[in-house]
Automatic annotation (TrEMBL), chain A:
Keywords: Amino-acid transport, Cell membrane, Membrane, Transmembrane, Transmembrane helix, Transport. This is Branched-chain amino acid ABC transporter permease. The chain crosses the membrane at residues 12-35, 67-87, 99-118, 149-168, 189-218, 230-254, 266-285. Its main location: membrane. Belongs to the binding-protein-dependent transport system permease family. LivHM subfamily.
TrEMBL record, chain B:
It is found in: Cell inner membrane. The chain crosses the membrane at residues 6-25, 32-57, 77-96, 103-121, 150-167, 238-263, 275-295. GO terms for molecular function: branched-chain amino acid transmembrane transporter activity. This is Branched-chain amino acid ABC transporter permease. Its main location: membrane. Keywords: Cell membrane, Membrane, Transmembrane, Transmembrane helix. The lineage of its organism: Bacteria, Pseudomonadati, Pseudomonadota, Gammaproteobacteria, Oceanospirillales. It holds the Pfam family BPD_transp_2. It is a multi-pass membrane protein. It comes from Marinobacterium nitratireducens. GO terms for cellular component: plasma membrane.
Length: 295, 307
């Protein structure tokens, strides 16, 4: 077994890989939260439920409609995004002018309902979702074994996160979005349809969670609880990174995944709490978050 | 004066209630009502939404339960210890949480509460998934046997009245006025020279200690402290109770806790038990969309309009 300074490299790289994978999901979810927050100034508590919907969507599509993984990877996020658009138009919009705490409570209620509904329909034990045939193999690297599907998660989420970052920071559409974040009234005055932009942004942010859910279905078991547990960690990550920057949300998500993976290797007892502890340290040293602007 | 008559009437009702209703049910309502009142001190009067209040309820419960089982404390000392522990945790968590505002405050408290959850899940003294079972109620002051439900009920009622009185006293004190000023216009409170973070922190400590008091009492009533008491579900439920009853009103959390506990008891008995989270979620959504002032808030509005 390969060791270096008494460290088992197989174990270490294995945990780093798990960390990168978790980090990919953290990045996708906090990216969605940050996009929605930027324009709507609300925190979507239902983001975890949307992730859960994505995973269940993939499972249902495969088992009841015969839609395979690759088609689900495109169709399910679209469906989840459509649900998000519906939620925004019907429920979030009417209280947009109220205190933002109300929209937080509203999305929490939605999350509770969805989680309750799926627990009722499918029970709380998880259901397996097979890895697609094309990605069943793996590669033996000098210091570790890399399953194809895990490599795919890292690549695919990097592409999606990077693409989203590029779209927001570098394109005309993204410029509208950033301008809308700064001053929606002025945008409206310039003839941009801000309400439509808000709806689409919400839909896109939610679709990112749905995409993460489909990706997660083969690695984690598909269960109603999967979203809420993840979301609380993502909240801590959002506090650590601050929601001011899109790139910051992605980097913090990945970074915290790696920190978690390393902790799992060196001190497994703290692996569930390490991200919260990092949050505490960040709150003490830089309360606005690593990438946040001082208010 | 009108207030006092209302409170007196409610108190007399509470004294007579065990004649009609099952004492354990009443005790459950009172424990959650105290919990919700404590939570409402933060949300309703200081404008701070804590999404992690279960951590304090659970801490009170675990500490009291552990000491009652292993140290043979009398119930009043057990409860005191649980309350102090929760207040201490609140002092630490509060210091951290008041560094952020608004929705960040909610996320920070939720994350900190999850930290507590994982701690209690792994700590050796909490009994893990089983929790602490068979916590003895003991004898109050060494001579009142609390295993009698009726005696226990009046003890719980006394605790609730104390907690409610303390909250009412806090809200109506100059300190409470400053809290309301912070809720309404924080920059202005700062410019008037108030150190708002200290005020928020103190409110947080009082609130968490009282939440701990509710948790300690609840542990004695049900003779059980478990992970459910520190789960984020419970943090959400207390928000719901306060919202349904009317945030920012003194009696709202009491009414809301009564309503939600009644609904839960009713549902868990029947076929609808499976739907409980769907229904609670739906109540959340409906309240936020159409009923933001809650039962008591709505009632007060009607009184103002008609009289």
């Amino acid at each position: 077994m390969a060791t270096f300074l008494g460290i088992n490299l197989f174990g270490l790289f294995g945990q780093l890989l798990v960390g990168l994978i978790n980090g990919s999901f953290y990045a996708l979810l906090s990216l969605g939260l940050a996009i929605i927050f930027g324009l709507l100034k609300i925190i979507n508590f239902a983001q975890g439920a949307m992730y859960m919907l994505g995973a269940f969507g993939a499972w249902l599509a495969l088992n009841h409609l015969g839609i395979n993984y690759w088609a689900a990877l495109v169709l399910v996020p679209l469906a989840v995004g459509a649900i998000g658009i519906l939620l925004e138009r019907v429920l979030v919009r009417p209280i947009a002018h109220e205190d933002h705490l109300y929209s937080l409570l509203l999305t929490f209620g939605i999350a509770l309902m969805l989680q309750g509904l799926f627990t009722h329909l499918f029970g709380s034990s998880g259901m397996p979702y097979a890895i697609p045939d094309e990605l069943k193999g793996g590669t033996r690297l000098p210091f570790m074994y890399l399953p194809d599907y895990r490599a795919w998660i890292i690549v695919a989420s990097a592409v999606v996160c990077g693409g989203t970052w590029w779209m927001i920071e570098k394109t005309r559409l993204g410029a509208y979005l950033r301008a809308g974040t700064e001053n929606p009234q002025l945008m409206q005055a310039f003839g941009i349809n801000v309400p439509l932009m808000v709806t689409l942004t919400f839909g896109f942010g939610v679709a990112l969670a749905g995409f993460a859910g489909v990706m997660a279905a083969p690695v984690y078991s598909v269960s109603p609880e999967m979203g809420s547990n993840l979301l609380i960690v993502v909240f801590a990550i959002v506090v650590i990174g601050g929601m001011g920057s899109i790139g910051g949300a992605i980097l913090t998500g990945l970074g915290m995944g790696i920190v978690e993976g390393l902790t799992k290797y060196f001190y497994p007892e703290a692996s569930t709490t390490v991200i919260f502890l990092v949050m505490v340290i960040v709150l003490l040293l830089k309360p606005a978050g690593l990438f946040g602007k001082e208010a | 004066m009108n207030d006092k008559k209302l409170y007196l009437a409610l108190f007399i009702l509470a004294l007579a209630a065990p004649a009609v209703l099952y004492p354990v049910f009443l005790m459950k309502v009172l424990c959650f009502a105290l919990f919700a009142c404590a939570f409402n001190l933060l949300l309703g009067f200081a404008g701070l939404l804590s999404f992690g209040h279960a951590a304090f309820l659970g801490t009170g419960g675990y500490v009291t339960g552990y000491l009652m089982i292993n140290a043979g404390l009398t119930p009043e000392l057990g409860i005191l210890a649980g309350t102090l522990a929760a207040g201490l945790l609140g002092a630490v968590y509060g210091k951290l949480a008041v560094r952020r505002e608004g929705i960040y405050f909610a996320m920070v408290t939720l994350a900190l509460a999850q930290l507590a959850f994982f701690f209690y899940l792994q700590a050796p003294f909490t009994g893990g998934e089983d929790g602490l079972q068979g916590v003895p109620r003991g004898e109050l002051f060494g001579f009142i046997d609390l295993s009698n439900n009726l005696a226990m009920y009046y003890f719980v009622l006394a605790i609730f009245v104390f907690g409610f009185w303390l909250i009412r006293r806090t809200v109506h004190s100059p300190f409470g006025q400053v809290l309301k000023a912070i809720r309404e216009n924080e920059p202005r409170a700062i410019s008037l020279g108030y150190n708002v973070n200290d005020y928020k922190w103190l409110a947080f400590v009082i609130s968490s200690a009282l939440a701990g008091l509710a948790g300690s009492t609840k542990t004695l009533v049900f003779q059980l402290a478990s992970l459910n008491d520190v789960h984020w579900h419970l943090s959400g439920e207390v928000v719901l109770m306060t919202l349904v009853g009317g945030m920012g009103t003194l009696l709202g959390p009491l009414v809301g806790a009564g309503a939600i506990v009644t609904i839960q008891n009713y549902l868990s008995g029947g076929e609808l038990g499976n739907y409980i989270h769907i229904i609670l979620g739906a109540i959340f959504v409906v309240c936020v969309l159409a009923f933001r002032s809650g039962i008591v808030g709505q009632f007060q509005k009607m009184l103002k309009q008609n009289f």
